[in-house]
UniProtKB/TrEMBL annotation:
Keywords: DNA-binding, Transcription, Transcription regulation. Transmembrane segments: none annotated. Residues 136-210 form the HTH crp-type domain. This is HTH crp-type domain-containing protein. SMART domains: HTH_CRP (SM00419). PROSITE patterns: HTH_CRP_1 (PS00042), HTH_CRP_2 (PS51063). It comes from the Bacteria. It comes from Enterococcus saccharolyticus 30_1. The keyword Lipid biosynthesis does not apply.
Amino acid sequence: MVKQLLMDYLEQNNIPVVIRKKRSYLTYEGIPDRYVYILKKGIIKTSVVTHEGREFNLRYMNDFDIVSLFKDESSQEVEAPFNVRVESEEAELYKIVRDQFWTDVNQNRALQDYVKEYYRKNLMYSMKKMQQMLMNGKFGAVCTQLNELYETFGVPVGEGTLIDFEVTNEEIARFCGITSASSVNRMMQRLRESGAIKTQDRKLLVLDIGSIRENIIY
């Protein structure tokens, strides 16, 4: 997607930027919300709560993009389909009243195309993630999440690629639908013993992404 198009729209219309601190929530699942949020800087996480009351993580975002855009053009408020929480020390986000945004989109063909591509991209991501979680066992699910962290936060260093973001085994478990963090501990130890990863300053250093990807059914 040509993100410069969206950037130009935000700047030309003087859309306000809000700053949120770490662990603060932008939206809560099921609670009506009347804003569209677009991440400018920082890291956010989306998640839902299962019927059993457990949190299931959906994804991290750390790049300029729309965070929450719910396809209901006529309503001023819609129920948020997921939780959105800030994971970096702070995050900067554009905050737009949703009916204003939809009015602008419907009057701008280029923005319409951008929004369509946004929905298409997120649908494809969701389908791929669901397929990987269903086709892989627990170990494969953990490897799938490590690969996503590698692609989202990976920074090349001397020995390999550093996942430049602290992620606990408990958080990885919540991405994989695993109820026990101790299960993830054992799988991570297995990857350490195989030489695929190691820990460096509380962050994961990926030494062999190929061996991790061998455990993923695409």
